[in-house]
């Protein structure tokens, strides 16, 4: 009897981890869920993904479940998160996975998180700009960030939802309103353009993309995406034609995928890869690793604009240092002026959405 009692308690505990609605889910087999939870849980960080059932969210959840720095992984969405959680929780890696479904479970999803990754929102279709997503995604980001202010105001936030040039200022205003804003902890994820830039430069130069580092500064849409080809590592020199080709391909990489997917969304797999690369950098910073440097769209004094993407060093409390742009060539100086003009409007649009 005692043994059965303990076993039942274990099953209940396991099922509750998988879905906080347990035992409301009694119709489903508790035993089926026994295999869904790793024993104990590895030491590490607690990470929530908001929008976890989406095109980015699913592969992102899978890759975060594989990250040894993650001990607890909360998967939140307004639809389909139970299926994604059940699926991913069968992976025999250390992180414990928990499901959260619908607005009423948002706060539970966020309590105690160290890192919150937000890929919630609608993606582009051919013919749309990222800014065309503003009307829907601004409200989604606002609601999710209000949850963060209440439940994990000290978490690092990685914001993926587009238009990043406006959603990051929206998040900042929500946090300011709640009195929880710490600019060191809010990062717009621009890693995908860096990943693309490394790949495209490697292709042109006949290099291994893993050995190429291209700083990409500015923002995350069209001309606001400014690759600094004069600062590529290893040092490369490009003809004017190569510079034009690479700049344009990097700036339009998102559109290239949107068009190839022909109405079925935008980049999801490469984005999940980039998001995990970036989240891992944030977690290594939190752990105290030295010299963790990535590009991100952050509150910044690098230019006269209040937000700008450039290289940042990540540490125990988020951003430890924001690096200046370094020497630019004439092509990049012209690009910078164009980028700043569009960025200023997108930032203001985000700020006004909350301040209106
Ligand atoms: N920063 C970047 O480099 C990139 C950003 N994106 C952006 O990421 C966003 C998501 O893209 P996909 O995953 O392809 O879209 P998707 O439509 O496949 O997935 C979005 C998910 O968000 C969920 N969602 C909607 N409203 C929500 C809410 N209020 N709370 C929680 N979840 C909610 C949906 O249910 C869905 O599961 C888009 O805005 C897209 O433009 C996409 C690629 C790159
Ligand atoms: O292009 C889009 O809409 C999605 C995105 O931000 C990217 O792929 O860089």
Automatic annotation (TrEMBL):
Lactate/malate dehydrogenase C-terminal domain location: 190-353
Residues binding substrate: 124, 130, 162, 196
Gene3D superfamilies, sorted: Lactate dehydrogenase/glycoside hydrolase, family 4, C-terminal, NAD(P)-binding Rossmann-like Domain
Residue ranges annotated for the Lactate/malate dehydrogenase N-terminal domain, each copy included: 46-188
Pfam family, one: Ldh_1_C
GO cellular component term of the entry, any: chloroplast
EC code: 1.1.1.37
Catalysed transformations (reactions): (S)-malate + NAD(+) = oxaloacetate + NADH + H(+)
Taxonomic superkingdom: Eukaryota
Catalytic residue positions: 220
Alphabetical keyword list: NAD, Oxidoreductase, Tricarboxylic acid cycle
NCBIfam families, alphabetized: MDH_euk_gproteo
Binding partners and assembly: Homodimer.
Stated name of the protein: malate dehydrogenase
């Amino acid at each position: 009897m005692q043994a059965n009692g303990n076993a039942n308690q274990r099953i209940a505990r396991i099922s509750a981890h998988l879905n906080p609605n347990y035992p409301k889910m009694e119709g489903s087999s508790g035993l089926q869920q026994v295999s869904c939870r790793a024993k104990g849980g590895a030491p590490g960080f607690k990470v929530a993904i908001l929008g976890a059932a989406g095109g980015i969210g699913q592969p992102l959840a899978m890759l975060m479940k594989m990250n040894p720095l993650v001990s607890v992984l909360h998967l939140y969405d307004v639809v389909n998160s139970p299926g994604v959680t059940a699926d991913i929780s069968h992976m025999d890696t250390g992180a414990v996975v928990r499901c959260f479904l619908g607005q009423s479970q948002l706060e539970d999803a966020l309590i105690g998180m160290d890192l919150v990754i937000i890929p919630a929102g609608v993606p582009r279709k051919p013919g749309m700009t990222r800014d065309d997503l503003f009307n829907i995604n601004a409200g989604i980001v606002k609601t999710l960030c209000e949850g963060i202010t209440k439940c994990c105001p000290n978490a690092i936030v990685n914001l993926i939802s587009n238009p990043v040039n406006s959603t990051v200022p929206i998040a900042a205003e929500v946090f300011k309103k709640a009195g929880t804003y710490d600019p060191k902890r809010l990062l717009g994820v621009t890693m995908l353009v860096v990943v693309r830039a490394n790949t495209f430069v490697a292709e042109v130069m006949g290099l291994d993309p893993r050995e190429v580092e291209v700083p990409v500064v500015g923002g995350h849409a069209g001309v606001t995406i400014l690759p600094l080809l004069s600062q590529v590592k290893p040092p490369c020199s490009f003809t004017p034609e190569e510079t034009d080709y690479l700049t344009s391909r990097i700036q339009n990489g998102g559109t290239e995928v949107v068009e190839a997917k022909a109405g079925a969304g935008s980049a999801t797999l490469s984005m999940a890869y980039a998001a995990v690369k970036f989240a891992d950098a944030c977690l290594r910073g939190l752990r105290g690793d030295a010299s963790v440097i990535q590009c991100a769209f952050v509150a910044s004094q690098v230019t006269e604009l209040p937000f700008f993407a450039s290289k940042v060093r990540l540490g125990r409390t988020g951003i430890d240092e924001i690096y200046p742009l370094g020497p630019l060539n004439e092509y990049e100086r012209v690009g910078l002026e164009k980028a700043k003009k569009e960025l200023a409007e997108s930032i203001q649009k985000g700020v006004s959405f909350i301040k209106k």
